[in-house]
């Protein structure tokens, strides 16, 4: 599995409205969640990790190599991103062409491009919509299509910016299963999310960003046990904790199952 190292990374927008400043951070787990308030710098970090923005100082190393030294195709094979808003990355006339376009950025063989596109569309459940215009799909389907464009390229590291936002229940279930399949097959999945129930239930590694810096790295249980931090950075703890709290129990619970395990003998 890949590792991402950030060393003395700084970036400031030209307007000087916001600065990101990461001393030393290391993502080495298969599934990593990055959380934090609006404007904390999460999407800016993703733009740096994909080369859409260039840091003013510091280095991003992926598997020990300076990311900025890689050729464009090597970058695409190392890191793929799905944006918060799928409409920012969909522009082809059909669903199939959309995915094929992505694969064509990293290879030339037409048959392989088509095969990979169809496999990725099947994986997200859009294989019956290949001829449709992406803008005729629902928002959930457009989000899954943007995921398919990355699955078809199959980079080592998948970055997802708010993947669960606006997804219907079935699509959430499907995407969560894909996350685990990716992690189990040696990929790294790094996701920005505001969905703390999902973080608590599915992730082992969570990083908190505050004002352009990392303020916490650890397990969801450690994060949600730190009530002062959770309140300071405006995170909503898992809903099961609010339910337990209303019953006079202020312990940390990550899911209904977790609550059940800890309370079934009482
Ligand atoms: N292109 C830009 N030019 C100038 N400032 C920007 C630009 N993009 C983002 N910012 C500012 O940088 C700060 C960090 O934005 P960023 O989108 O990285 O935060 P975020 O943590 O991803 O927020 P959210 O959770 O709302 O997506 C914000 O104050 C934002 O207004």
From TrEMBL:
UniProt-listed Pfam families: ABC_tran
PROSITE patterns attached to this UniProt entry: ABC_TRANSPORTER_2 (PS50893)
Family annotation (CDD domains): ABC_cobalt_CbiO_domain1
Gene3D superfamilies linked to this entry: P-loop containing nucleotide triphosphate hydrolases
Keywords annotated in UniProt: ATP-binding, Cell membrane, Hydrolase, Membrane, Nucleotide-binding, Translocase, Transport
One GO molecular-function entry: ATP binding
UniProt-listed SMART domains: AAA
Residue ranges of domain ABC transporter in the record: 4-236
EC numbers: 3.6.3.-
GO cellular component terms, semicolon-separated: ATP-binding cassette (ABC) transporter complex
Family: Belongs to the ABC transporter superfamily.
Protein's name according to its UniProt entry: Cobalt transport system ATP-binding protein
Gene: cbiO3
